[in-house]
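Data availability (excerpt). All sequences and predicted C-alpha cell strings are deposited with the supplementary files. A representative entry, IclR family transcriptional regulator, is shown inline so that the format can be inspected without opening the archive.
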Amino acid sequence: MAHKPTERVLSVLSLLATHPEGLTLTQITKLLCIPKSTLFPILQEMVQEKFLHLSEKENLYFIGIAAYCIGAAYEYDKTLLPYIKSIMNKISQEINEMCQVGVLDGPNILYILKQDPDVAHTIKIISYIGKKLPAYCTALGKALLCQYTLKELKNLYPNGLVPQTKNTVIDFDKLYKQLQLIKSTQVASEFEEVTEQLCCFAVPIRLPNSRQYAMSISMPLFRATKEKIALAQKLLLQAKSSIESFNMSVD
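C-alpha cell line:
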C-alpha cells in the first residue's frame, strides 16, 4: 500500500519537473486531484526545505534548489552541466584563473561548480563547491540580482546589507544602481567586497527551464590588469552565449 504523504510529495515533484514554466496552487490541485487544504501545507514545507521554489510575484511553484542538488549528479552525467564544465575548463586554462558557477539560494549565492587552472600560482584563491556567501557582495550574486526591483532587494535583505569588508556596498540605492548597469551590460564585477585584495567578474546565464546560473572568473588584484579584465569579460560573455543556446536534448 502506498504511503499517501510520500506519494503526494513525489507526485508534486514529478508534475513540476514536466512544467518548467511553473504552476499555481490551483493548477497543481486540479492536475493531481488533491484538495487545496491537503496540498497547501505540503507545498509550504517543500518550499521551506527548498525542494520547491515559490515565485511570489506570479504565485508559481518551480522545482527548488534542494531537488536540483539531489539530481545534479545524474544531470551532470547526462546533459548541461558537463557542457558547462568543459567551457569552464577552457576558460580557466586560457586566462589562468579560477572559474566558478553559482545559483541563488534565497539571499545567498551557492557555489555549485569550480574549475582551477593548471598553472601553479604563488597566490592561489581558495574556494569550494557548496560554499554560500551573501549574493549582494559577490559578482555571481550581483549577476543574478540584476533582475530584482529595489523593493524586492529590500525584502530579500530585511536586516540590511551587512558589510563583509570595508568595500562592501551597504546602501540599497547604490547597489540598485550597480544592478541596473549590470542588467544593461550583462557583466557584473566586484572589487574587494567579499575578500580584500580579490576581485571577480560574472555573467548571468538564463535558460528556458527557469534555472538561472551565473559564471565567474576570480583573480587577485595584482593580476587584474586592464587587459586581463577585458579578457575575462570577453570569455564570460562568450560562455554565456554558448550555454544559453545549448540544446539539452540527448540524441
